[in-house]
Amino acid sequence: MKNAIARFGKFLSAMVMPNIGAFIAWGFITALFIEKGWIPNANLASIQPFMLTYLLPVLIAAQGGKMVGGDRGRVMGAIAVMGCIAGVGGTDGQPMLMGAMIMGPLAGLVIKKFDQFMENRMPAGFEMLINNFSVGILGMILAIIGYYAVGPVMSMILSVLSAGVSFLIAHSLLPLVSVFLEPAKVLFLNNAINHGVFTPIGAEQVAQAGKSIMYMLETNPGPGLGVLLAYWFFSKDRVTKDSAPGAIIIHFLGGIHEIYFPYILMNPAVIIAPIVGNACAIFFFSIMNAGLNGPAAPGSIIAFTMMSPKDGIFISWIGVAIAAAVSFLIASPIVKMAGAKNLTEAQDKMQEMKAQAKGQTVPTAQAKVDGAHKIVFACDAGMGSSAMGATKFRNRIKSVRPDLIVTNTSVDTIPSDADIVVCQQILADRARACAPQAQLVTLANFLADPNLDALYDALTVQDAPNTPPTTTTEQATAKPANTELLLASGIKLGLPPTTKEEAIRAAGRLLVEQGCVDESYVDAMLEREELATTYIGLGIAIPHGTSAQKARVKKSGIVVLQYPEGTPFGEEKANLVFGIAGVGDEHIDLLSNICMALEDDTLMEQLKTTTDVNFVLRSLQFPDK
User: Fold this and answer.
1) DSSP string over 67-107
2) Contacts (Cβ under 8 Å, ≥6 apart) of 86
3) Backbone phi, psi, residue 436, to 5°
């Protein structure tokens, strides 16, 4: 139940998070130009209602549609939500943010099911006609449904929720929200609650009053600050005490609230401190009629200040100070009496909980691995992340369990004799359908994941069998890699940070220049990234096309893009981006060489910063070109 709720909340927040920049722009326009803003300007203030009514719902619906139905779902979601907006009166009605969270995924699901139905029924030569008209016609139908049904229903629900919030505020009951909010944050439901629930309600209040207290409930950095200060001053464990100042900076100035969660997990009684601290702050905000103009994301004091109205900054600061002070006073005696607690253990527990919040399965030493003989690493195409993951895990375990076969494949072609299947969580359903007999282990990345460590422990806790190593085509010693796969012209060093999408496009364009693929393969690489991240850990990403697009590969090849400062891949940063195009298994040996390089931490750091192309070639066991 907890995992189901976590996944649902994460799905809701995933529609909002990529569009936070638009919310911030809307919040700034509100804070600056409305009648009570910093520099009132009626003309510029007129932009604000159009952003709230049209831009934000369309962005959310498009993102929701894309998450379910890809690019066609994105267009469908944008069309469908317009019916909701029109159905409640446009700028005169309520903002349809929650309506967008329904219509977007629904539209994506509809077009996804339609595409599945037409997969083997599409008449040759009519593909473009059917694809375009299907989006238009189905989008129109959903827009009509949104106009007559979803929009009015969501307007009614929003009215009830807003009335409920007003009732809580009027009767000074809103502080009780902290009783549920603070524990939920520690369970990694913070983004889900903030962006999936509070943001839509807050947008409705901003439309009516120019500000909303809902934006202050989860993002207040004060409760966490008080906990960290208590550990800094009173912890008896030196490691914990010394780590607190750095955590304070990351939490208070950077807005990364997750940094203080382990400090609560190592001593659960401390949760009382942020609950009471936030309750006191919310009570203060309520009686002062405080609010923010937009979401304070991330929840740092900087964002909290910037989203405060001109006449409300001091009130916002006082509320943060109240939360921090109360939290500190309550946490201090609890920390004093707790004795020396191990922060490392709490951080490990946090990683396990975070994995569970994302729906990942964490294997243990008691996992059912008795008799396991064949382990299959699976990804969408079976030519990138799974290949490197299998190679690294094989090298790690072969000295202890030489009897094991560790191989890789596409998630849709997992062999029937697989005993254990390792894949990313987003591919779990496809893996189960293909190999229902196998134990499934899901990961965040293929190179450095606690689930892999747990799997290794579970496989090696038994005494290693006395049988000699099995020699098979799947587990043969590495062969010298084809020296034509990676050329000096396919290595670009010292690149400035960019977006994940642009990094993938750059890798794709370089593969095109190398004569490995045609132009359409670049879009296939981006499509593959939408299925599951190609970031595999340790600062490495290996973008490649989908399995359906392998026909676009003219010859096998690998290109290397180096980003010394790192370029974002989701929550991580990649320093080395390996673009892959593979015909058959020709590229697997080169990936094996990369995995061998990963075993040398010093070499990996050099590869991430070197300016010498020949050094890269030599390090991956290639002669100078």
Assistant:
1) HHHHHHHHHHHHHHHHHHHHHTTGGGS---HHHHHHHHHHH
2) 147, 151
3) -65, -20
Pairwise CA distance, residues 152 & 86, whole Å = 10
Can you name the residues that pair with 212 across neighbouring β-strands? 292
* 80-114: b (≥16 Cβ within 10 Å) or e: bbbbbbbbbeeeebbbbbbbbbbbbbbbbbbbbeb
For 188, the enclosing helix (H) or strand (E) is none
Q: What is the DSSP annotation of 428-479?
A: HHHHHHH-TTSEEEEES-SSS-HHHHHHHHHHHSSPPPSSPPP--TTSPPPP
The pair of three-digit structure tokens given for residue 433, joined into one six-digit string: 């359908």
> What is the rounded end-to-end Cα distance, in angstroms, of the chain?
57
d(CA 98, CA 196): 8
DSSP-derived letter for residue 321 is H
Contact between residue 262 and residue 190 where contact means Cβ atoms under 8 Å apart = no
Q: Which of 84, 280, 379, 595 is catalytic?
A: 379
* Token code pair at residue 498: 């960019």
With beta carbons less than 8 A apart as the criterion, state whether 624 and 617 touch.
Answer: yes
- Contact, 64 vs 105, CB < 8 A? yes
The phi, psi pair for 440, rounded to 5°, reads -105, 130
Q: Which of 474, 496, 482, 601 is nearest to 540 (CA)?
A: 601
Q: Write out the two tokens for 263.
A: 């400090």
Q: What is the pTM of this model?
A: 0.49
Residue 12: strand, helix, or coil: helix
373 is catalytic: no
Q: For residue 230, which of 373, 326, 357 has the smallest C-alpha distance?
A: 326
Cα three-residue angle 184-186-191, rounded to 5 degrees = 65
Strand partners, 580: 544, 558
The answer to whether 544 is a known catalytic residue is yes
Rg (CA), the chain: 27
Return the ∠ at Cα 305 (arms to 302 and 309), rounded to 5°. Answer: 155
SS3 assignment, position 384: coil
- Among 195, 251, 257, 544, the one annotated catalytic: 544
Q: What are phi and psi of 342, to 5 degrees?
A: -90, 110
For residue 37, the SS3 value is: coil
Task: Report the alpha-carbon distance of residue 463 to residue 368 in Å, rounded.
Answer: 15
Sort strands 491-492 and 535-537 into parallel, antiparallel or unpaired: unpaired
Give pLDDT, residue 527: 81
For residue 541, what are the β-bridge partners? 535, 577
Q: How far is CA 200 from the centre of its chain?
A: 20
List strands edge to edge, sheet with 540-541: 491-492, 557-569, 572-581, 540-541, 535-537
What's the pLDDT at 1?
53
pLDDT at 589: 57
Closest by Cα among 67, 59, 157 to 100: 59
Using 50 as the pLDDT threshold, list the residues of the chain that sit under it.
358-367, 463-481, 622-625
Span 354-390, pLDDT tens digits: 555 544 444 443 445 556 788 988 876 555 667 777 8
Q: Which residues pair with 578 in a beta bridge?
A: 560
